[in-house]
Design goal:
Blueprint: H1 37-40, E1 47-49, H2 54-62, E2 69-70, H3 86-105, E3 116-125, E4 131-132, H4 138-150, E5 153-165, E6 174-187, H5 193-202, E7 222-226, H6 229-233, H7 237-247, H8 250-259
Parallel strand pairs: 1-2, 1-3
Antiparallel strand pairs: 3-4, 3-5, 5-6, 6-7
Helix pairs in contact: 4-5
């Protein structure tokens, strides 16, 4: 059997067209955005996602962040895996992405400074503690999914990092909020080699950490999850929203601190 190296594949499927029933289809009523102070403060301002992931962009749209700029980080993901825990590795990687894009855009004379920079990193961790990232070839992809099938329980970590400039003069001039979410995923032990090969050939998981997409066909490989599915998809929204809410109040807290009279 011959295997191929992976190249970039289209991340979007063509839109589904409903069969013609004779009656005009009514468009679904659009949902109203979340009316939250932290999100309202971002309206009309630069919000940057430091990731090229279409899945993360779609997840952010679910909480009302639709007008965002996509500026992927180009910093090498070269943090040594052997000397730190997976928790530390994913957090350091996401922080590195956020600070790289923030430092590049904070002095953007054309578009102005960003109000918020969002970065994330997702890794799968095998039962032995090995960090599984994106497969580099069909051969590696098959081996990765076979490992997850044979030792079915693994962990998914997603680190979320948000950065925003501070209006106050408090060093270092920006605020940062971070969080790491963990989800335990159990593969179905009855998944066959034929199913693994057939899934690999679809290439759905070729650009995903761990080699599968739980939001798509990859769900047929999974028996259960303990935690949130959006974390496995690459961006836990509950954690994301909490980070945004915290970071959008940093200036208020800084003002309170500056205006607090010193004790005599």
């Amino acid at each position: 059997m011959s295997y191929s190296k992976y190249e970039a594949v289209p991340s979007e499927l063509p839109p589904y067209t409903a069969p013609n029933t004779g009656a005009p289809a009514k468009p679904p009523r659009p949902l109203l955005p979340l009316d939250l102070p932290a999100l309202n403060r971002l309206k009309g301002k630069r919000v940057i996602l430091a990731s090229a992931s279409p899945g993360r962009r779609r997840l952010l749209a679910q909480i009302g962040l639709t007008d965002i700029e996509i500026i992927p980080s180009t910093v090498p993901e070269d943090i040594p895996k052997g000397s730190i825990t997976p928790f530390e590795y994913v957090l350091q990687t996401a922080t590195k992405k956020a600070t790289h894009v923030y430092s590049r855009e904070i002095n953007n004379e054309t578009r102005g400074e960003p109000a918020l920079v969002i970065a994330a990193d997702t890794i799968m961790v095998s039962h032995m503690g090995e960090i599984l990232e994106k497969p580099r070839s069909e051969r590696e992809h098959i081996a990765m999914l076979t490992l997850l099938r044979n030792w079915p329980t693994h962990k998914v970590y997603t680190a979320v990092v948000t950065m925003a400039p501070l209006e106050s003069a408090i060093s270092p001039g920006y605020a940062m909020e971070t969080s790491v979410e963990e989800t335990v995923v159990t593969f179905d032990k009855m998944v066959t080699d034929e199913l693994i090969l057939a899934y690999v050939k679809t290439r759905e998981g070729a650009d995903k950490a761990g080699g599968y997409g739980i939001q798509g066909m990859g769900a047929i490989l999974v028996e259960k999850i303990d935690g949130t599915q959006d974390n496995v998809m690459g961006l836990p929204l509950r954690v994301m929203l909490r980070c945004i809410e915290k970071i959008m109040t940093h200036d208020e807290l800084a003002d309170e601190f500056e205006n607090t009279p010193a004790e005599e």
